[in-house]
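Sample 3 of the quickstart, ligand adenosine-5'-monophosphate-propyl ester:
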Amino acid sequence: MSYPYQIKSLEEYKVAYQKSITDPEGFWGEIAENFTWRKKWDKVLNWNFKEPKVEWFAGGKLNITENCLDRHLPALADKPAIIWEPNNPEERVRIVTYERLHKRVCQFAQVLKNNGVKKGDRVCIYMGMVPELAYAVLACARIGAIHSVIFGGFSAQSIADRLEDAKAEYIVTCDGAYRGGKDIPLKSIIDDALIGNKVVKRVIVYTRTRTAVSMIKGRDVWWEDEMLKVTDTLPVEDFGKSEEMDAEDPLFILYTSGSTGKPKGVVHTIGGYMVWTNYTFVNTFQYQPGQVHFCTADIGWITGHSYIIYGPLSAGATSLMFEGVPTWPDAGRFWDIVDKYKVNILYTAPTAIRSLMSYGLDPLKGKDLSSLKVLGTVGEPINEEAWHWYDENIGKKKCPIVDTWWQTETAGILISNLAGVTPSKPSWATLPLPGIQPVLVDDRGKEVTEKDEEGLYKGNLCMKAPWPGILRTTYGDHERCRTNYFATYENLYFTGDGALRNDDGFFRITGRVDDVLNVSGHRIGTAEVENAINMHASVVESAVVGFPHEVKGQGIYAYVIVSAMHGDEEHTRKDISQTVARIIGPIAKPDRIQFVNGLPKTRSGKIMRRILRKIAEGEMDKLGDTSTLLDPGVVDEIKSGKL
Ligand code: PRX
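Result:
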């Protein structure tokens, strides 16, 4: 494959950027020509941010899996599409060529059909990181079903909420999943999630761990049995056909946390998502045919959707999929993988880098990392220390590091340097990609035109115009999409992040300015955690804020009022953490729980989170004015009890 739209120099970047702003339709129309369409679009772009309504390539007909699979055949038939490294390094590796991937996807697409799945139906996928997860995702796309992948670390309750919101009738899962030293009983968690659920008709179970599971007659079937039925009865040609889809048909729903309420289902549509993930993959990482791309994310998050599956596969790349965790069986695991498969591009999160840093340089001994060409980070701001460690010890100062800023809602990378093409700056995401028009505004929505004391522009990060990958709606609730992203500032998409800009036009993302936490690169709403804590029988009220955490970036700090302790404080803390793990999942367990007698509230009853945040951050002298509080005395009590 060649990528005529791959930007090769700073000059080319400037030209592309300029064109993308002055003539977006011409620019994206030309890029979209490089894909396989059954019918070309009538109009490249229609949009307004008021409703909001955004359409890219309207009237175009395509199937994204034809672009990820069929169009690479026969040229790339024997090339690995997915290299799968199991959790246990002793277990057999699996190399899935483009030809095999195509076959498996077609086969499982037929399994879905045989089980009643139709175009537009929602299929929830709750699996570990096995190739079958990629098959399931692509098989949904092949028949026009909408996939909704749920990360394996979420609880039964979280799954139940998502199933209900998506009105999903089908589930694909595994008996269990391996992650480091743990076996996670996925099927039994699904069974719990389905108690009382009358909508789900079919659960397809892939055997991974051989854990004993209960199979319910009429509802649950085994993946392996269903696959056999397809090969037994039909020649490949009969089930290989893909559904013709509109560019603006939904491709998937992915749930993500916001500052209020339950997680919302971000909806991405086919044509724009395909073009955006492919374009950003090829340009940011400067992928060259034949290279091995290793994105360490889980497919349960957007990073895995866009940069393990759709971006790389639509570009005919080799995507490495890793089942396990970076520190098991030891902290040299990533480096073993890089060495073993001669990985060229490594894309990971600052939290993983910081965690690996803490093991020192021993785990790197004897590992050949010379295949690496490009390093990437995503998910949270990267501190300079971690950036330099990555640069010196992993990239050996020879690999550009791309600091990629983006979100579930953006589908792909919006602000990042392009590897080796545009300049980098430690802890700065730097320049917007073509098509991206960032703007910093103050709290009233006015563009920031004055610099701060450090000579930087500082404000809330917004986007002036749509790019092909922008979210189209939040599932089942368009008004929620409008109020969350398009109503804070008129005619702007609001990211929820704060940022700085320097005179070179580089952006540095400083973190969320709303009540969303970023814990180890996982997005968690404070309101969600509070609701979970409040489910505990002894809890009267709680308030949750973030605090700086050396490895996780942010930790979760909970102030909790209890009616009575159950046993001692430590025991009650454990109970509360358990409740949170049960309601949301282990990723949302508070790092610190401080018991308090009262919370700082205004006379109108609003919790002053600013004060709680400062206390959790240890900045006791920066609490600001506390005189408007109903009971200023609670502040001293909270300060003295800080953990
Ligand atoms: O706060 C930003 C942070 O992660 C948020 C988006 O989280 P999520 O939707 O889960 O997607 C994560 C993977 C794209 C953003 O609002 N974030 C993401 N990348 C960066 C970042 N913060 C700073 N620098 C980044 N490179």
